[in-house]
Amino acid sequence: MKNLYLTILGIVTIAAIIIGCGIHLGGFFGFDPFSIFKPANTKKTEFQDSYTGINSIDIDAKVLNVEIIRGDECAVSYEGNEDLKPIVKADNGILKIEQKSKINVAKNANYKSRMVITIPSDTKIKDAGFEIDMGNLNIEDMEALSIDIDLNMGNVTGSNIVAESVDIDANMGNVEINNIEFKKLTADCDMGNVILVSSRDLDDYKIKAESDMGNVELDGERVKGTYVSDGDEGEVELKAGMGNISLSW
Known about the structure:
Elements lengths: L1 H24 L18 E8 L4 E8 L1 E7 L2 E8 L5 E5 L2 E5 L6 H4 L5 E7 L4 E10 L2 E17 L2 E17 L2 E17 L2 E5 L6 E7 L4 E3 L2 E3 L3 E3 L4 E9 L2 E4 L1
Parallel strand pairs: 2-6, 2-8, 3-7, 3-9, 8-9, 9-10, 10-11, 11-12, 11-17, 12-18, 13-17, 14-18
Antiparallel strand pairs: 1-4, 4-7, 5-6, 13-16, 14-15
């Protein structure tokens, strides 16, 4: 009976996510019923700009692959379909990146867009927010006070990340981060695996990990059901609906 319930829950979750993405992106359930048959703008474009005084990042994208790397200066580069070209602005130290509100996913499904954001090696980001409906996010070598990630369809990967607070919400995709240091971390993945390798000892952290339809492994040891431990050095909360959880240190 429990397996039947979980199967039904999984099907309902998948349907809800797909329908939600379609409505939000305007590609499958837009107001124009014949929009998916119209030819897409296949023109490609690219640009690269530099910025100064940036201390926060705010990304709101519909269809975009994003990479965060370290470098000599703050820079943003983009290459991909012209229809997917985002708007980039710098305002009061915040690097804001946004795509237009309605993008036809059906017309742009075969085209990839890639944005690379370079952060100066001596810069510590205050707040980094990533909201991406469809696309992957890869973060390499970032130091921040707060990191907030919300992906509907895509993977979250990264390494060498230091932050006071990390919040990850992934609906359909995996979360895999190596060498991450944090005070508080939450990760919620509906359909996908959560694999985290901490760069510091978590023996004195408060840890809660649970997976509805998957395995939970903590520092190399598999546990059953929901795992809870007390600690006062920090806090970790991991949840997977249909996938495995692995946390090691």
